[in-house]
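Predict the 3D structure for this chain.
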Amino acid sequence: MTDPLHAGGAGAAPPAALLAFVRGIDRLAVGCGYLFCWLAIPLVLCLTYEVIARYAFHAPTIWAFDITYMLYGSHFMLGAAYALYRGAHIRTDVFYQNWSYRTRGLVDAGLYLFFFFPGMIFFFWMGLQEALHAIDIREVSDQSPWRPPLYPFKTVIPIAAVLLIVQGTSEFLKAAYAAMKGRPL
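Done. Predicted structure below.
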């Protein structure tokens, strides 16, 4: 009789290369999440300065709105891959939590393959086109007299899409493994 942990069956350890690849991608998502969370500090400082200037000194700034939506948008978009890693995106857990690992894996792998990746590739492609156009024309905001450049902000979109595609690859591999083996990676 063979040992189930070494026989390549349901109890076998996952391939080391697969595990290292998935863990490496996950470390990238965590590192980016921790890096981009620091965007909250200048966001809070800008808002605090604006509130004090506006209400204590009756001297509102012309730049606070633009800076805050760019910082918050960047914070939100660049943190999406970390949220995907943490499982913080929307899911109907009422049904999902009662499914076996194999069923969860099958559903997740199918959804990643047929919806997530095509959507993210489209998001990347369109975001890249918009960012390149903004860089080419040196686009600036026409919403305020300060007129800050928009091309750095628009460049965040394809970067976020790439980070999501990379983390989605890790999540797809985890789901495919669970679908095949009936247990999490």
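DSSP finds seven helices and no strands in the chain.
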